[in-house]
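re: that complex we talked abt at group meeting.

here r the seqs, copy pasted straight from the sheet so there may be weird spacing, ignore it
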Amino acid sequence: MESSSNQLNQVLEQGVRKLLARAVDARALKTDVLLPRITAAVEKYLLRDDPDANSADISTFIDAIQADDLCLIIACERNDEGAWSDLVERFTPIVRSAARSATANEDAAEDLAQSIWAELYGLRGGKDGQRSSKLAYYSGRGSLAGWLRAVVAQLAVDTYRKQSRFVQTEEDADLDRLARNMPSLSESHAATASSLLNPEQVIANRLAGSDMQEALNRAVKELDAEDRLLVKLYYFDGLRLREAGVVLGVHEATASRRLMRIHGDLKKRVRHILMEEFSWTESETERSFTEIGQHLDADLEALVTKEEVS
Amino acid sequence: MKQESNNAIDLMLRKLGRSGRGLQQNAGNGAAESSDAHLDTDELGAYAENALPPTTRSRYTEHLADCVRCRQIVSQLSQAAGLVIDDSPKAVPTGLKAFLVSLFSPIVLRYAVPALGLLIVAAIGFIALRSPARMELAQKREVTVFDQAPAAATPGDAGAASTNAPSVNFASKSQPQSASTPQEGAKTAGAQVEQERTADEVRRQEKEQPVQKSASSTDQIAAAPPSSSPTDTVTVVTPKPVAVEDQKQATPEVAQNKVQAQPSTQAGSVQSANANAEPSRRRAAKEPAADIARLNEGSSLKKGKTYSGAANESAKADDAEEKRERDRSDKDQAETVSVAGRHFRKSGSVWIDVAYNSSQGTTNVTRGSEQYRALIADEPGIRTIAEQLKGEVIVVWNGRPYRIR
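got the structure back, here u go
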């Protein structure tokens, strides 16, 4: 046990030495400074999921670490002024660009970018009142630019969620007031509204709460993680196939083929659930699928006609 | 039916997605999602850049499938990173397999197959153009050899002169005369023996003195009487008007000699002529290359211009081709440059990093785009390369190939 631990340390030290050797600018960092960070990264990304990883795997992992980026960040953590100026000079455009993408206007983007630098410098402070910088999270596994974009995106999402929660609460209150003041309005128009629903809504209503809906929900949940992620990205998040493919690390064509296969898998699973657990007959199941498919065609035709007329 | 069913699944998923978005937002806003459960920035960035080991990535995929917040961030980061993914996952081949894979990769084949086709067409065209010239030369040589026998023999040798094929013509022309000279008919048997001996002698002389023979061949053609064969007559090319005059002058003399050596019967004369001509033809057919070589050697002589002209053209074509090859290789060497410690070679209008493997996918980056600015901000070395090499550049940077347009 002890010998394996020693062997691991030796591999790690050797990897760190190689990393420092291949860095263009190692910023006068020593092996012992980098070793804890590299060890943490190896444990987090490699040994946790693959405890039996051998020396070659570990060496390969360390070789894939962005040496210069990691050295720059660690030098910044050690208050190296030169490293800080390099960081700010090199990555300000990236932080600004990411902030602009994540926000609605230029002022908000500038605020967000400033917040990021404050976070990185540790001005926000930790829980114990000590200076705590997000730089400590960077492992060098991905590029520094990608990591900074992640920091910006994370802060933007958190900020947006806080704001939207506040706005939504206000909107809900307004809606409640409206509902209290005009109770008769919704009742009087209820019948009219239901008759004005388009065929898609009719189908949706028919599906809502139905066995079919429940079967599909369950089938989606039973998909493996990769397929479920593709379904979520495409149907829930509204990404295009190309974008979903990029997230999954596959080509658009592969994502498309995979989605076709998922459709087939889901259909089989839904049919199985309906027949085995909800006691549907095969003809009922097929008729339902066909009906929905035909309604989809009808909807598309109606949509096209409407567009042509307008 | 199947399509309808798939459409049905697609429609239901869209519905589920629309209703799910509301649920997701509510779940995302709810307090149930603690920040501890989310991926940290390092994990998000590494996932978006596809820089995680497969098992770790699977774990995070599991999380992303159920976490709206992290999925949203990873989606943004992935689009920003602009990764271009290969169509299908493939194991990294090694050694010979890797070489074969790279050799037959679609990118290579895209250029190699048309290039190969062009090469084949060019080769066929070259051979087709050269073949008539060669055949012509062989035919000319055949005529030369055929006509060479009388010239090679001693002019004063009546027996040898009587066996020459052209003498058939003259013999036929002077047949009444030859028939009226019975004393000449007695020499026919001796003439046939002499004919064979002369042919052997000619062969030997050709082998021993090819250059001299070639040099004298045009003289012989010029001085030779018209051939008995119509084909030969057609294929004999008179190189110069002077030669024609020589031929005209020489003809009565030769004819006179032949009349003297003519056999008593025409049939005998034809037979002997054919017997003499056949070995020459066979030899000419068997040794076209040697003949052409001899003709080339003889090309330096003044009167060999007719034959050496075609051979010279062929040699010139070969020289020009070699020169073009040399120029091409020089150009290739000249179009290899080093920028920022990287070596690039020019392929068409594209500068390609020599470290680039054509089986790898590339990250496409357009100059001036936001992605480009971000990239050069990350990697100033790429900026140097992109600025120094105009046009499209494929550069392998930190193991990742980028195509900069």
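couple things i noticed - The first helix of chain B runs from residue 2 to 29. The CA atoms of residues 36 and 70 of chain B lie 12 Å apart.
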